[in-house]
Amino acid sequence: MNVWVLGIGTLYLGALVYAALRARASNRSDHDFLTAGSNLGSLFGCLTVAATLFSTFTLMGMPDLFRNHGVGAWFFLGISDCALAFVALWFGVNIRKRMVVQNFNGFSGWLSKQYNSRYAAYVYLLGIFVFLVPYVAIQIKGISLFLNSIMPAVMPSWAWSITIVSLILIYSEIGGLKAIIFADSIQGLTLFAVTLIVAVGCVAHFGGVGAMFDAIESSAPALLSLPGPAGLFTYQFLIASFLAIVMIPVTQPQMSIRLVIMRDTPSLARMAVLLGLFSFVLILATLPIGLYGAALYPDDTTANFVAKVLVHDQSSIVAAIVIVGLIAAAISTADSQLFALGSELRSGASASRLQSLSMVRGAVLVFALAALVVSLVSNTHIVLLARTSFAGTSLLAPMILAAVFFPARLHRLIPLVVAIGLIVFLASISGVVDENILGWRVDLVLFVSVALATATILALNGRNRTAE
Q1: Quick check: is 431 in a domain?
Q2: Quick check: 341 and 365 in contact, CB under 8 A?
Q3: How many domains does the chain have?
Q4: How many CA atoms lie within 13 A of 348 on its CB side?
Q5: How far apart are CA 67 and CA 300, in angstroms?
Q6: Which of 94, 150, 299, 450 has the smallest number of Cβ neighbours within 10 A?
Q7: pLDDT for 156-201, tens place per residue?
């Protein structure tokens, strides 16, 4: 297996070097560096969006969620991610109508202009920084634990984390978004193929799909019903998770910028259809991997379960592709988000001296170091950490959607309402505020409250303008 890992890993690194150098040569302006020339086709668009959405937790977190909590994870992940593709199309079409793509340089600056207030940019930057840095950290954390578990003699997990962050910084700062999109395409295809191969092997172990479910029913029947053996998938959890996930195209810049830079609206439509199919098949394939673990390794830790099902139970070449694919997934998702954070900080900067590419590169470095620190101290609940990130950024959705659909009714109170929602959500995560309010999940209450408050402000501001 080591020989295969070395060979495939060398090919992957060679492809990254080639893409970074070619992208650097073709970037003729700051706009090219930051937006890849705003000429993204449907196939590459699907692969790069999928790569930013599906990362290390696809093969590490999703199967573990099925293993521990059962088929209810499909409602959490599968249905939500397929609906996300529709929201990506809907939001993408409308946001492209509201801006000149050639002059686009980030959502924070655009929001500042729409609300005629720097505070809108500050609130947006606060939301994406606080919740995306931990999301980047879980990519680094997950893959470093995995690599340490299968190759403990090579280096400790913290050293793997530092190595991965170093690769991310070198690659993204050389080639910009074009190079990142190329890496995303490799990662998306690899992840899709590997997941299907492992899933087919897991089903074959039981002798078929029906036999697989029969085996689980006899050993752990609670996995086949809601809310699952640990009671995780309550209707409140599923509704709140659905809202958090489907708002990702609206609120997370690493995805929303890809919608803006699509070549044209037909390309965007084709990309959304392909993304829906990609999501449906990929997440469905993680279910048998999780049930395989529930039958064979129910009491193992996440790291041990993942190492066994993805490496030890596979042929040498499949195991090697899995290892390289997971490294690629961690790098691809993390560099997309770090690059987006740097671009948004530049977009929201008021002083012209802060809007140079050196600002982006410096911001990416700072955010990467912050993510590295978080990765070293975070726990291993990868999917639930990701969900927390999605829930936090979803609170930005009312402010963004209001700017898209009601530009004439905007009021500075809207960013203030969103800021209060973010602060309360952070307080609930840290334990300062109870996670339930009168029996309702605080993230669900906050999303509904911020949305209703935004709608009320829009309605009152529209009435006042009519009266004037």
Answers
A1: no
A2: no
A3: 1
A4: 25
A5: 10
A6: 299
A7: 888 888 888 888 777 777 777 888 888 888 888 888 888 999 999 9
